[in-house]
From TrEMBL:
GO CC, any one term: membrane
Name of protein: SDR family oxidoreductase
Annotated InterPro entries: NAD(P)-bd_dom_sf (IPR036291), Sc_DH/Rdtase_CS (IPR020904), SDR_fam (IPR002347)
Keyword presence, Oxidoreductase: yes
UniProt key word Cytoplasm: no
Keyword annotations: Oxidoreductase
Length: 264
């Protein structure tokens, strides 16, 4: 029997891509789901696609609004009396060179990807501690493990999440709190289209590498398997995941390979 059964799982970024596939896949388990992102109408469409819509509650949130996270956490708990797993999946990417990128774009990437995730996680933490159980599942990226041009602010924010959640795991393991970091490579979603460019406007076009990535359905399955196994960290993608090991053992080789690959 899966450890997912009986759990209440709160998924952010549930309106599209990886989050949407995760919610649809999880809805075939015997669990309650709370689904969040900015647009309620998009979340309602996702709910309609799910196997057990009666077990799904919608809770719109914008990760930019850090001060709202405590109220939102209380609302999330009120739906089913508890939250067992928070999947911090919502995020936004970047496609612009450092020399061209406005500081405001870095602020936005940190506000959403890092501080928004930290604010939401801190808001649910007292509940996890009180319940002596809670699982943070945070979606970063392979860009949280090594860098690639055009993604300086995104890499910074995703690397920062690894630092924060390493400490979360150490400080709260004694309280029954678990942490799983999910690092996708290329997954076929709108992430490149939504990525911020030098002036903060979305790129709108897709990247070839993203188009050729794994499906969000496969990414969702691998995430669920990692959650069930209480993994500390999982790499989800194609051959690009080898970059993590190259970074550790042959950093100069990885540097040359990333530059040669000219991935945008
Ligand atoms: N697709 C990839 O190739 C890839 C690779 C590495 C990491 N990731 C990560 O996976 C996660 C999901 O991205 P995706 O690929 O499904 O892209 P996506 O653009 O399809 O989905 C992103 C989700 O985050 C939500 N979101 C964005 N800004 C938000 C905000 N301010 N407040 C609340 N929600 C917000 C969006 O509404 C959407 O639901 C992100 O954290 C992303 O960085 C994706």
């Amino acid at each position: 029997m899966s450890s997912i059964n009986g759990k209440t799982i709160w998924v952010t970024g549930a309106s599209s891509g990886i989050g949407k596939s995760l919610v649809i896949t999880l809805s075939s388990y015997s669990c309650n789901l709370i689904i969040s992102s900015r647009r309620k109408d998009e979340l309602m469409k996702v709910k309609e696609l799910c196997e057990s819509p009666e077990n799904i509650s919608i809770l719109p949130l914008d990760l930019k609004n850090h001060e709202e996270m405590e109220n939102l956490a209380q609302k999330a708990i009120s739906f089913y009396g508890k939250v067992d797993i928070l999947v911090n999946n919502a995020g936004i990417s970047q496609r612009s060179l450092i020399k061209d990128t406005k500081l405001e774009v870095y602020e936005q990437l940190m506000d959403i990807n890092y501080l928004g995730t930290v604010a939401l996680s801190k808001a649910i933490l007292p509940h996890f501690i009180a319940n002596k159980y809670g699982h943070f599942v945070t979606v970063t990226s392979l860009m949280g493990k090594f860098g690639s041009p055009y993604r300086s602010g995104y890499c910074g924010a995703k690397h920062a999440l690894h630092g924060f959640f390493d400490v979360m795991r150490m400080e709260h393991e004694k309280d029954g709190v678990k942490v799983t970091m999910v690092c996708p490579g290329f997954v076929q979603t709108n992430v490149a289209k939504n990525a911020l460019t030098a002036d903060g406007s979305p790129q709108k076009d897709d990247d070839v590498a993203t188009q050729n990535g794994i499906t969000p359905e496969l990414a969702a399955k691998k995430m669920i398997s990692a959650i069930e196994k209480d993994k500390f960290e999982v790499y989800v993608g194609g051959k690009e995941v080898k970059g993590v090991y190259l970074k550790r053992f042959f950093p100069k080789l990885l540097h040359k390979m990333v530059l040669k690959s000219q991935v945008r």
